[in-house]
């Protein structure tokens, strides 16, 4: 069978996108998703995303990590599917769609996708780290000399330690750089550092706000710049937006 796909990237976090409104794709086929995400034998991507119909929303996002498994929310993938839906004419420049963590509002303005994230009620403060859920679980730790930091080695250790081994976590290392925040992320389900992680950047900006960074927090990742705006709520944070570019890279057909 020939599978028509589109490839998108959001600050270098890259995704294979498939229009599954006709429900032809077998979501239980882990091996197929893993093959498609393989950078040598398949198309290549940090994740795989299906756009599906939903009776109450403009569309539904179904997200898989590159290991082939469905996972929790992907912020950059969310921005990319909004751009994909707009490119396909499914939506205009505004939308409300459903993802695994619930409904998301989003809009495209001046070439940037603004994606509303779930409210964050709590930020756990551990011994030298923070832990919070922005749609996906995120460990956040301040480091020095982030550009030279061993993100894979240190991220692997945290992700596989006794606390996180079973459920897994994404692991973010952050450093303040003037007015900006640098963020590098080891991603669960990719099991490697990616160029950017939207839910991770969001978690990192909220942690940085605890040390006084004000909304909107400008963030730099290996794959480019993002911005996170938010408001403090009685408990935690609300009106959180992840803002940045999302681009179609190419479209193609792969034999499966
Ligand atoms: N790249 C993502 C995060 C995707 C989910 C993550 N790998 C997990 O399993 O938690 C993002 O942009 O948020």
Automatic annotation (TrEMBL):
One GO CC term on file: cytosol
Listed pathway(s): Amino-acid biosynthesis; L-lysine biosynthesis via DAP pathway; DL-2,6-diaminopimelate from LL-2,6-diaminopimelate: step 1/1
Site (Could be important to modulate the pK values of the two catalytic cysteine residues): 138, 187
UniProt keyword list: Amino-acid biosynthesis, Cytoplasm, Isomerase, Lysine biosynthesis
MF terms in GO: diaminopimelate epimerase activity
Active site, renumbered: 74, 197
Catalytic activity: (2S,6S)-2,6-diaminopimelate = meso-2,6-diaminopimelate
Stored Gene3D superfamilies: Diaminopimelate Epimerase, Chain A, domain 1 (3.10.310.10)
Positions of substrate binding: 13, 65, 75-76, 170, 187-188, 198-199
Gene Ontology biological process terms, A to Z: lysine biosynthetic process via diaminopimelate
EC number: 5.1.1.7
Subcellular location: Cytoplasm
Coiled coil: none
Function summary: Catalyzes the stereoinversion of LL-2,6-diaminopimelate (L,L-DAP) to meso-diaminopimelate (meso-DAP), a precursor of L-lysine and an essential component of the bacterial peptidoglycan.
Family per record: Belongs to the diaminopimelate epimerase family.
Subunit architecture: Homodimer.
PANTHER family tied to this protein: DIAMINOPIMELATE EPIMERASE, DIAMINOPIMELATE EPIMERASE, CHLOROPLASTIC
Entries under NCBIfam families matching the protein: DapF
Name by which UniProt lists this protein: Diaminopimelate epimerase
Species per Swiss-Prot/TrEMBL record: Sporocytophaga myxococcoides
Gene name for this UniProt entry: dapF
């Amino acid at each position: 069978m020939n599978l028509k796909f589109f490839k998108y990237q959001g600050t270098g976090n890259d995704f294979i996108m498939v229009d599954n409104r006709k429900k032809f794709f077998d979501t239980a086929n882990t091996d197929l998703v893993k093959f498609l995400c393989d950078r040598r034998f398949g198309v290549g991507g940090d994740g795989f995303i299906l756009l599906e119909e939903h009776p109450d929303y403009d569309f539904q996002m179904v997200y898989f990590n590159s290991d082939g498994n469905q996972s929790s929310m992907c912020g950059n993938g969310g921005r990319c599917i909004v751009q994909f839906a707009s490119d396909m004419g499914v939506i205009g420049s505004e939308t409300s769609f459903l993802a695994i963590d619930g409904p998301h509002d989003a809009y495209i303005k001046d070439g940037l996708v603004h994606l509303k994230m779930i409210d964050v009620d709590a930020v756990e403060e551990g011994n030298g780290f923070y832990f919070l859920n922005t749609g996906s679980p995120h460990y956040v730790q301040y480091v020095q000399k982030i550009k030279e930091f061993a993100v894979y080695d240190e991220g692997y250790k945290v992700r596989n330690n006794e606390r996180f081994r079973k459920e897994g976590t994404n692991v973010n290392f952050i450093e303040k750089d003037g007015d900006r925040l640098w963020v590098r992320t080891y991603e669960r389900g990719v099991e490697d550092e990616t160029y950017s992680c939207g839910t991770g950047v969001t978690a990192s900006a909220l942690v940085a706000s605890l040390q006084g960074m004000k909304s909107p927090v400008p963030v730099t990742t290996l794959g480019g710049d993002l911005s996170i705006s938010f408001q403090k709520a009685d408990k935690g944070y609300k009106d959180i937006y992840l803002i940045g570019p999302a681009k179609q890279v190419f479209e193609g057909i792969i034999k499966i």
